[in-house]
Specification:
protein transport, membrane, 67% helix, proton motive force dependent protein transmembrane transporter activity, mainly alpha, transmembrane
């Protein structure tokens, strides 16, 4: 019986890339607690900044020309589109704004906590790839969110432009915020899809050949997804989402093609390694018998 293991104390450290289930769950609990604390601190900062954040959220929509709501015109909202109803609505609206801001403000820190939880189970090359994907995911999401922030007032102008002249319109504060956050999430997550294709290629799930054979179908699916996923549903918002997604898809496809070519080149070099003897061809070949002179 091997008693060497009995003499060693049990530690929660990772041994050979593995961790006991109990320690794994404890690590997950600790990481989630840190994530909640970070989001809480970010929400506190968001609560302090909520007047400026609300002005930035509603400003582009409140200054749309040719639109008039039922609320009285104010310097912050000249067209009177924004209204609130109910005693608790201002508090819940402010809390939602602070919470959304807290998630965004603390995103680098809680992203690191999630990365630190997953990193011990990865190999060295997988850590390098995963860290690169995380670094690329943040600017892609922010680019999609910025595009949504730009197109959102234009989409409202198109949709509210169908209001008959005999009517006025209004935007409930909580509905406006939910609508805006959904728009941000749709655009931000959509900009991550090309990165997901590259990740699937790096893990060997999809190849460049399969994507090149179906690129027309995939582009059509991008436009269908854009039409269904955008909260507004108008053609302008659909095109604003579909065109950058198509460009990102083309860029990811170029990366995948380059990656597969490099992989094939390395495989060919490994097959023709100078340190390895080439296999002998022992197949008997047919020889010609020379004709005798004088025959």
């Amino acid at each position: 019986m091997d008693t060497t293991r009995l003499d060693k104390p049990r530690t929660p450290a990772v041994q050979g890339g593995r961790m006991p289930l109990r320690e794994h769950l404890r690590e997950l609990r600790n990481r989630l607690a840190k994530v909640l604390l970070l989001v809480f601190l970010g929400t506190a900062v968001g609560w302090h900044l909520h007047p400026w954040i609300i002005t930035e959220l509603t400003g582009p929509s409140c200054h749309l020309p040719g639109l008039h709501g039922i609320a009285p015109a104010t310097p912050a909202c000249p067209n009177g589109l924004m209204v609130m109803q109910g005693v608790m609505t201002p508090l819940t609206f402010t809390f939602k704004v602070a919470l959304a801001a807290g998630v965004v403000i603390s995103s680098p820190f809680w992203s690191y906590q999630l990365w630190a939880f997953a990193a011990p189970g990865l190999h060295r090359h997988e850590k390098r790839y995963a860290l690169g994907f995380v670094a690329a995911a943040v600017p892609l999401f922010l680019s999609g969110a910025g595009l949504a922030y730009w197109v959102f007032p234009q989409a409202l102008r198109i949709l509210l432009g169908f209001t008959p002249g005999a009517f006025s319109n209004s935007l409930q504060g909580d509905q406006f915020l939910d609508f805006f956050i959904r728009m941000i999430l749709v655009f931000g997550i959509s900009f991550e899809m090309p990165l997901l294709l590259v990740l699937l290629n790096f893990t060997g799930v999809v190849s460049a050949g399969s994507l090149l054979a179906r690129w027309r179908t995939l582009v059509m699916l991008i436009f269908v997804f854009s039409a269904l996923a955008t909260p507004t549903g108008d053609p302008l918002t659909m095109m604003v989402l579909a065109v950058p997604m198509t460009a990102l898809f083309a860029l990811s496809l170029a990366v995948i093609v380059w990656r597969d070519r490099v992989r094939a080149r390395r495989a060919g070099q490994a097959a023709l390694s100078p340190d390895e003897a080439s296999p002998l061809d022992l197949t008997p070949s047919r020889t010609e018998v020379p004709a005798r002179s004088g025959d």
